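pasting for ref. prot 1 ->
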Amino acid sequence: MATIFLILSFVSFMFLLHKVFPDLIQKKNKKKRALGPTTLPVIGNLHMLGSLPHRTLQSLAKRYGPITSLRLGQVPAVVVSSPEAAELFLKTHDVTFASRPKSQFSVFIFFGTSGMATSEYGPYRRNMRKLCILRLLSSSKVQSFGPLRRKELGLLVTSLRKAAAARVVVDLSEVVKKLVEDMNHMMVLGGIT
Protein backbone atom coordinates (compact mmCIF):
# COMPACT_ATOMS: atom_id res chain seq x y z
CA MET A 1 0.00 0.00 0.00
CA ALA A 2 2.85 2.34 0.87
CA THR A 3 4.56 1.52 -2.45
CA ILE A 4 1.48 2.47 -4.44
CA PHE A 5 1.23 5.72 -2.49
CA LEU A 6 4.90 6.50 -3.19
CA ILE A 7 4.53 5.78 -6.90
CA LEU A 8 1.38 7.89 -7.21
CA SER A 9 2.93 10.76 -5.27
CA PHE A 10 6.07 10.63 -7.45
CA VAL A 11 4.03 10.64 -10.67
CA SER A 12 1.85 13.52 -9.48
CA PHE A 13 4.94 15.47 -8.34
CA MET A 14 6.60 14.97 -11.74
CA PHE A 15 3.40 16.00 -13.51
CA LEU A 16 3.09 19.19 -11.44
CA LEU A 17 6.77 19.94 -11.90
CA HIS A 18 6.38 19.48 -15.63
CA LYS A 19 3.37 21.82 -15.75
CA VAL A 20 4.94 24.55 -13.59
CA PHE A 21 8.55 24.37 -14.86
CA PRO A 22 8.55 22.77 -18.32
CA ASP A 23 12.07 24.05 -19.07
CA LEU A 24 13.57 22.12 -16.16
CA ILE A 25 12.35 18.74 -17.33
CA GLN A 26 12.32 19.10 -21.10
CA LYS A 27 15.07 20.90 -22.95
CA LYS A 28 13.66 23.19 -25.59
CA ASN A 29 14.89 22.17 -29.00
CA LYS A 30 15.73 24.92 -31.43
CA LYS A 31 14.40 22.92 -34.38
CA LYS A 32 10.83 23.45 -35.41
CA ARG A 33 8.75 20.36 -34.65
CA ALA A 34 5.29 19.35 -35.71
CA LEU A 35 2.47 20.22 -33.34
CA GLY A 36 1.46 17.65 -30.80
CA PRO A 37 0.10 17.16 -27.29
CA THR A 38 2.21 17.90 -24.23
CA THR A 39 4.23 15.00 -22.94
CA LEU A 40 4.81 13.53 -19.50
CA PRO A 41 8.43 13.22 -18.33
CA VAL A 42 9.07 9.48 -18.53
CA ILE A 43 6.19 7.94 -20.46
CA GLY A 44 5.73 10.70 -23.04
CA ASN A 45 2.35 10.31 -24.75
CA LEU A 46 1.91 6.57 -24.13
CA HIS A 47 -0.82 7.26 -21.56
CA MET A 48 -2.97 8.85 -24.28
CA LEU A 49 -3.06 5.89 -26.68
CA GLY A 50 -5.52 3.75 -24.70
CA SER A 51 -7.05 0.50 -25.93
CA LEU A 52 -7.82 1.84 -29.43
CA PRO A 53 -4.69 3.71 -30.50
CA HIS A 54 -5.86 4.22 -34.10
CA ARG A 55 -8.88 6.16 -32.87
CA THR A 56 -6.70 8.25 -30.56
CA LEU A 57 -4.34 9.05 -33.42
CA GLN A 58 -7.31 10.01 -35.59
CA SER A 59 -8.59 12.46 -32.96
CA LEU A 60 -5.07 13.88 -32.54
CA ALA A 61 -4.87 14.40 -36.31
CA LYS A 62 -8.15 16.32 -36.24
CA ARG A 63 -6.83 18.50 -33.44
CA TYR A 64 -3.19 19.07 -34.47
CA GLY A 65 -3.20 18.52 -38.22
CA PRO A 66 -2.06 15.78 -40.61
CA ILE A 67 1.49 15.67 -39.17
CA THR A 68 1.54 15.16 -35.40
CA SER A 69 4.55 14.95 -33.11
CA LEU A 70 4.43 12.43 -30.24
CA ARG A 71 6.85 10.94 -27.74
CA LEU A 72 6.49 7.21 -27.14
CA GLY A 73 8.39 6.94 -23.89
CA GLN A 74 11.68 8.70 -24.61
CA VAL A 75 11.47 8.07 -28.39
CA PRO A 76 10.21 10.92 -30.56
CA ALA A 77 7.73 9.88 -33.24
CA VAL A 78 5.97 11.65 -36.08
CA VAL A 79 2.51 10.42 -37.06
CA VAL A 80 1.40 11.15 -40.63
CA SER A 81 -2.32 10.76 -41.22
CA SER A 82 -3.10 12.24 -44.64
CA PRO A 83 -2.35 10.72 -48.05
CA GLU A 84 -0.70 13.92 -49.29
CA ALA A 85 1.70 14.10 -46.34
CA ALA A 86 2.41 10.37 -46.58
CA GLU A 87 3.29 10.83 -50.25
CA LEU A 88 5.76 13.54 -49.27
CA PHE A 89 7.41 11.20 -46.74
CA LEU A 90 7.35 8.00 -48.79
CA LYS A 91 7.75 9.21 -52.38
CA THR A 92 9.13 12.74 -52.67
CA HIS A 93 11.59 12.69 -49.73
CA ASP A 94 12.04 8.92 -49.44
CA VAL A 95 15.85 9.03 -49.41
CA THR A 96 15.79 11.31 -46.36
CA PHE A 97 13.59 8.89 -44.38
CA ALA A 98 15.00 5.61 -45.76
CA SER A 99 17.58 5.04 -43.02
CA ARG A 100 16.71 3.30 -39.80
CA PRO A 101 17.60 4.96 -36.50
CA LYS A 102 20.80 3.76 -34.86
CA SER A 103 20.44 2.00 -31.54
CA GLN A 104 22.94 0.55 -29.11
CA PHE A 105 21.45 -2.88 -29.72
CA SER A 106 22.15 -2.78 -33.46
CA VAL A 107 25.66 -1.39 -32.91
CA PHE A 108 26.65 -4.29 -30.62
CA ILE A 109 24.75 -7.15 -32.24
CA PHE A 110 25.23 -6.27 -35.92
CA PHE A 111 28.85 -5.09 -35.76
CA GLY A 112 28.25 -1.36 -36.05
CA THR A 113 24.95 -1.57 -37.97
CA SER A 114 26.45 -3.58 -40.84
CA GLY A 115 23.45 -5.90 -41.11
CA MET A 116 21.11 -5.49 -44.05
CA ALA A 117 18.14 -4.62 -41.86
CA THR A 118 20.00 -2.14 -39.63
CA SER A 119 22.43 -0.41 -41.99
CA GLU A 120 22.03 3.18 -43.08
CA TYR A 121 20.67 3.89 -46.52
CA GLY A 122 23.49 4.10 -49.02
CA PRO A 123 25.61 2.04 -51.42
CA TYR A 124 26.38 -0.69 -48.85
CA ARG A 125 22.71 -1.32 -48.10
CA ARG A 126 21.75 -1.23 -51.78
CA ASN A 127 24.46 -3.78 -52.64
CA MET A 128 23.49 -6.06 -49.74
CA ARG A 129 19.85 -5.93 -50.77
CA LYS A 130 20.73 -6.67 -54.40
CA LEU A 131 22.92 -9.61 -53.32
CA CYS A 132 20.17 -11.07 -51.13
CA ILE A 133 17.52 -10.72 -53.81
CA LEU A 134 19.64 -12.15 -56.63
CA ARG A 135 21.57 -14.87 -54.76
CA LEU A 136 19.48 -15.91 -51.75
CA LEU A 137 15.83 -15.16 -52.50
CA SER A 138 15.62 -15.71 -56.26
CA SER A 139 13.02 -18.16 -57.50
CA SER A 140 15.67 -20.54 -58.88
CA LYS A 141 17.42 -20.66 -55.48
CA VAL A 142 14.13 -21.28 -53.66
CA GLN A 143 13.19 -24.02 -56.16
CA SER A 144 16.59 -25.68 -55.76
CA PHE A 145 15.64 -26.50 -52.16
CA GLY A 146 12.32 -28.10 -53.20
CA PRO A 147 13.55 -31.70 -52.81
CA LEU A 148 14.90 -30.92 -49.36
CA ARG A 149 11.56 -29.44 -48.28
CA ARG A 150 9.62 -32.41 -49.68
CA LYS A 151 11.94 -34.90 -47.91
CA GLU A 152 11.64 -33.10 -44.55
CA LEU A 153 7.86 -32.74 -44.84
CA GLY A 154 7.60 -36.45 -45.69
CA LEU A 155 9.59 -37.32 -42.57
CA LEU A 156 7.35 -35.03 -40.49
CA VAL A 157 4.15 -36.60 -41.82
CA THR A 158 5.54 -40.10 -41.16
CA SER A 159 6.45 -39.22 -37.58
CA LEU A 160 3.01 -37.67 -37.02
CA ARG A 161 1.31 -40.82 -38.36
CA LYS A 162 3.36 -42.98 -35.98
CA ALA A 163 2.48 -40.69 -33.06
CA ALA A 164 -1.21 -40.81 -34.00
CA ALA A 165 -1.14 -44.61 -34.24
CA ALA A 166 0.51 -44.81 -30.82
CA ARG A 167 -1.96 -42.22 -29.46
CA VAL A 168 0.85 -39.96 -28.29
CA VAL A 169 0.17 -36.26 -27.66
CA VAL A 170 2.28 -34.08 -29.96
CA ASP A 171 2.93 -30.36 -29.52
CA LEU A 172 2.46 -29.43 -33.18
CA SER A 173 3.76 -25.89 -32.85
CA GLU A 174 7.01 -27.19 -31.37
CA VAL A 175 7.35 -29.82 -34.10
CA VAL A 176 6.77 -27.30 -36.89
CA LYS A 177 9.20 -24.87 -35.24
CA LYS A 178 11.87 -27.58 -35.17
CA LEU A 179 11.12 -28.52 -38.79
CA VAL A 180 11.55 -24.94 -40.02
CA GLU A 181 14.70 -24.55 -37.95
CA ASP A 182 16.20 -27.77 -39.33
CA MET A 183 15.33 -26.87 -42.92
CA ASN A 184 16.90 -23.42 -42.52
CA HIS A 185 20.06 -24.95 -41.09
CA MET A 186 20.28 -27.43 -43.96
CA MET A 187 19.74 -24.71 -46.55
CA VAL A 188 22.38 -22.45 -45.00
CA LEU A 189 24.92 -25.22 -44.42
CA GLY A 190 24.46 -26.86 -47.81
CA GLY A 191 21.90 -29.59 -47.21
CA ILE A 192 23.78 -31.45 -44.47
CA THR A 193 21.56 -34.18 -43.00
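and prot 2 ->
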Amino acid sequence: MISGGATNGDSGRARKAHGMRLESMGLDLAPKSDPPISFGPEDLKGIVAPHNDALLITLTFANYDVARIFVGTGSAVNILFKTTLDQMKVEGFEFDPISTPLFGFTGHDVQTIRQIMLPLSLGTGPHRFMKMTCFNVLDALSSYNGILGPQALTDFQAVSSTYHQKLKYPMGNHVGVVFGDQKSSRYCYVDNVKVEVKRS
Protein backbone atom coordinates (compact mmCIF):
# COMPACT_ATOMS: atom_id res chain seq x y z
CA MET A 1 0.00 0.00 0.00
CA ILE A 2 1.38 3.40 -1.05
CA SER A 3 -0.41 6.39 0.49
CA GLY A 4 0.11 10.14 0.37
CA GLY A 5 1.10 12.11 -2.68
CA ALA A 6 -0.91 14.86 -4.31
CA THR A 7 -4.19 12.98 -4.67
CA ASN A 8 -6.62 15.65 -5.87
CA GLY A 9 -4.44 18.36 -4.35
CA ASP A 10 -1.17 19.09 -2.59
CA SER A 11 -2.56 20.52 0.66
CA GLY A 12 -4.33 19.30 3.79
CA ARG A 13 -7.48 21.19 2.77
CA ALA A 14 -7.53 19.50 -0.66
CA ARG A 15 -7.12 16.03 0.87
CA LYS A 16 -9.93 16.71 3.38
CA ALA A 17 -12.22 17.90 0.57
CA HIS A 18 -11.42 14.75 -1.40
CA GLY A 19 -12.50 12.58 1.53
CA MET A 20 -15.78 14.47 1.99
CA ARG A 21 -16.72 14.58 -1.70
CA LEU A 22 -18.79 11.39 -1.60
CA GLU A 23 -20.87 12.76 1.28
CA SER A 24 -21.86 15.88 -0.65
CA MET A 25 -22.32 14.30 -4.10
CA GLY A 26 -23.61 10.83 -3.30
CA LEU A 27 -22.98 7.81 -5.51
CA ASP A 28 -23.72 7.98 -9.23
CA LEU A 29 -25.56 4.75 -9.97
CA ALA A 30 -26.83 5.78 -13.41
CA PRO A 31 -26.63 2.88 -15.88
CA LYS A 32 -23.73 3.01 -18.33
CA SER A 33 -23.75 1.98 -21.97
CA ASP A 34 -20.23 0.54 -21.92
CA PRO A 35 -19.85 -3.14 -22.85
CA PRO A 36 -19.55 -5.55 -19.89
CA ILE A 37 -16.04 -6.55 -18.83
CA SER A 38 -15.48 -10.11 -17.67
CA PHE A 39 -12.71 -12.69 -17.32
CA GLY A 40 -13.10 -16.37 -18.10
CA PRO A 41 -11.17 -19.59 -18.76
CA GLU A 42 -10.23 -18.37 -22.25
CA ASP A 43 -8.23 -15.54 -20.66
CA LEU A 44 -5.87 -18.09 -19.09
CA LYS A 45 -4.49 -19.18 -22.47
CA GLY A 46 -0.68 -18.89 -22.36
CA ILE A 47 -0.59 -18.28 -18.61
CA VAL A 48 1.64 -20.47 -16.44
CA ALA A 49 -0.56 -21.49 -13.49
CA PRO A 50 -0.75 -21.69 -10.59
CA HIS A 51 1.11 -18.45 -10.00
CA ASN A 52 1.35 -15.43 -7.70
CA ASP A 53 2.92 -13.08 -10.24
CA ALA A 54 2.24 -9.35 -10.18
CA LEU A 55 0.58 -7.78 -13.23
CA LEU A 56 3.23 -6.01 -15.33
CA ILE A 57 2.21 -4.40 -18.62
CA THR A 58 3.63 -2.25 -21.41
CA LEU A 59 2.10 1.21 -21.88
CA THR A 60 2.70 4.05 -24.32
CA PHE A 61 3.74 7.42 -22.89
CA ALA A 62 3.90 10.22 -25.47
CA ASN A 63 4.82 7.71 -28.23
CA TYR A 64 7.35 5.89 -26.02
CA ASP A 65 6.58 2.23 -25.30
CA VAL A 66 7.51 1.56 -21.68
CA ALA A 67 7.59 -2.00 -20.32
CA ARG A 68 7.51 -3.18 -16.69
CA ILE A 69 4.66 -0.95 -15.53
CA PHE A 70 3.25 -2.44 -12.34
CA VAL A 71 -0.56 -2.33 -12.03
CA GLY A 72 -0.82 -1.41 -8.35
CA THR A 73 -4.36 -1.04 -7.07
CA GLY A 74 -2.92 -0.27 -3.62
CA SER A 75 -1.11 2.88 -4.76
CA ALA A 76 -2.79 6.21 -4.05
CA VAL A 77 -1.11 7.84 -7.06
CA ASN A 78 0.38 6.96 -10.44
CA ILE A 79 4.17 6.82 -10.31
CA LEU A 80 6.96 7.17 -12.86
CA PHE A 81 10.51 6.65 -11.68
CA LYS A 82 13.02 9.38 -12.53
CA THR A 83 15.33 7.01 -14.39
CA THR A 84 12.45 6.03 -16.68
CA LEU A 85 11.47 9.63 -17.36
CA ASP A 86 15.11 10.56 -18.06
CA GLN A 87 15.41 7.78 -20.64
CA MET A 88 12.20 8.89 -22.37
CA LYS A 89 13.57 12.44 -22.82
CA VAL A 90 10.09 13.90 -23.24
CA GLU A 91 9.91 17.61 -24.00
CA GLY A 92 7.15 20.18 -23.97
CA PHE A 93 5.34 18.88 -20.87
CA GLU A 94 4.99 20.97 -17.72
CA PHE A 95 6.25 19.84 -14.33
CA ASP A 96 4.52 20.83 -11.09
CA PRO A 97 6.38 20.84 -7.75
CA ILE A 98 4.99 18.57 -5.01
CA SER A 99 5.42 18.92 -1.26
CA THR A 100 3.35 15.93 -0.05
CA PRO A 101 5.51 12.80 0.47
CA LEU A 102 4.53 9.21 -0.26
CA PHE A 103 4.39 6.55 2.45
CA GLY A 104 4.93 2.82 1.88
CA PHE A 105 3.66 -0.01 4.04
CA THR A 106 6.78 0.29 6.22
CA GLY A 107 5.81 3.85 7.14
CA HIS A 108 8.94 5.44 5.64
CA ASP A 109 8.32 8.55 3.57
CA VAL A 110 9.73 9.18 0.09
CA GLN A 111 9.67 12.68 -1.33
CA THR A 112 8.11 13.08 -4.77
CA ILE A 113 10.25 15.24 -7.05
CA ARG A 114 7.39 16.65 -9.12
CA GLN A 115 4.24 15.84 -11.06
CA ILE A 116 3.89 15.61 -14.83
CA MET A 117 0.92 15.26 -17.16
CA LEU A 118 1.62 12.86 -20.03
CA PRO A 119 -0.50 11.35 -22.82
CA LEU A 120 -0.96 7.72 -21.77
CA SER A 121 -2.27 5.07 -24.18
CA LEU A 122 -3.72 1.65 -23.44
CA GLY A 123 -3.78 -0.99 -26.17
CA THR A 124 -2.86 -0.76 -29.84
CA GLY A 125 -4.53 -0.36 -33.23
CA PRO A 126 -8.25 0.44 -33.34
CA HIS A 127 -8.61 -0.28 -29.62
CA ARG A 128 -5.96 2.21 -28.58
CA PHE A 129 -7.30 4.53 -25.87
CA MET A 130 -5.40 7.72 -24.94
CA LYS A 131 -5.91 10.09 -22.01
CA MET A 132 -3.79 12.79 -20.40
CA THR A 133 -2.68 11.25 -17.11
CA CYS A 134 -0.94 12.70 -14.06
CA PHE A 135 2.15 10.93 -12.70
CA ASN A 136 4.23 11.55 -9.60
CA VAL A 137 7.95 11.41 -10.43
CA LEU A 138 9.92 9.48 -7.83
CA ASP A 139 13.71 9.26 -7.49
CA ALA A 140 14.03 5.79 -5.97
CA LEU A 141 15.44 2.35 -6.70
CA SER A 142 13.01 -0.04 -8.37
CA SER A 143 13.00 -2.78 -10.97
CA TYR A 144 9.69 -1.36 -12.23
CA ASN A 145 9.54 1.62 -14.56
CA GLY A 146 6.32 2.91 -13.07
CA ILE A 147 3.14 2.14 -11.15
CA LEU A 148 -0.35 2.50 -12.59
CA GLY A 149 -2.66 3.25 -9.68
CA PRO A 150 -6.43 3.52 -9.18
CA GLN A 151 -6.41 7.12 -10.45
CA ALA A 152 -5.56 6.03 -13.99
CA LEU A 153 -7.56 2.79 -13.80
CA THR A 154 -10.66 4.79 -12.89
CA ASP A 155 -10.06 7.34 -15.65
CA PHE A 156 -9.85 4.56 -18.23
CA GLN A 157 -12.62 2.53 -16.50
CA ALA A 158 -10.10 -0.31 -16.65
CA VAL A 159 -10.41 -3.58 -14.74
CA SER A 160 -7.36 -5.68 -13.91
CA SER A 161 -7.02 -9.39 -13.13
CA THR A 162 -3.71 -10.48 -11.70
CA TYR A 163 -4.80 -14.11 -11.97
CA HIS A 164 -5.58 -13.78 -15.70
CA GLN A 165 -2.60 -11.43 -16.27
CA LYS A 166 -4.74 -8.93 -18.17
CA LEU A 167 -6.05 -5.39 -18.02
CA LYS A 168 -9.36 -4.74 -19.81
CA TYR A 169 -11.06 -1.44 -20.60
CA PRO A 170 -14.13 -0.28 -22.59
CA MET A 171 -13.42 1.25 -25.99
CA GLY A 172 -16.61 2.24 -27.78
CA ASN A 173 -18.66 -0.91 -28.26
CA HIS A 174 -15.63 -3.12 -27.72
CA VAL A 175 -13.40 -4.20 -24.84
CA GLY A 176 -9.69 -3.51 -25.20
CA VAL A 177 -7.09 -5.80 -23.65
CA VAL A 178 -3.55 -5.19 -22.39
CA PHE A 179 -1.64 -8.42 -21.76
CA GLY A 180 0.61 -8.90 -18.76
CA ASP A 181 4.24 -10.03 -19.02
CA GLN A 182 4.50 -12.95 -16.64
CA LYS A 183 8.17 -13.60 -17.37
CA SER A 184 9.18 -9.99 -16.62
CA SER A 185 7.10 -10.12 -13.45
CA ARG A 186 9.20 -12.99 -12.10
CA TYR A 187 12.49 -11.31 -13.01
CA CYS A 188 11.31 -8.06 -11.37
CA TYR A 189 10.44 -9.93 -8.19
CA VAL A 190 14.02 -11.20 -7.94
CA ASP A 191 15.42 -7.74 -8.76
CA ASN A 192 13.20 -6.05 -6.17
CA VAL A 193 14.48 -8.39 -3.46
CA LYS A 194 18.03 -7.41 -4.43
CA VAL A 195 17.05 -3.71 -4.30
CA GLU A 196 15.62 -4.08 -0.78
CA VAL A 197 18.72 -5.94 0.42
CA LYS A 198 20.91 -3.22 -1.04
CA ARG A 199 18.79 -0.51 0.60
CA SER A 200 19.02 -2.27 3.97
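Residues 55-199 form a domain with the Cathepsin D, subunit A; domain 1 fold (CATH 2.40.70.10).
The two ends are 20 Å apart (CA to CA).
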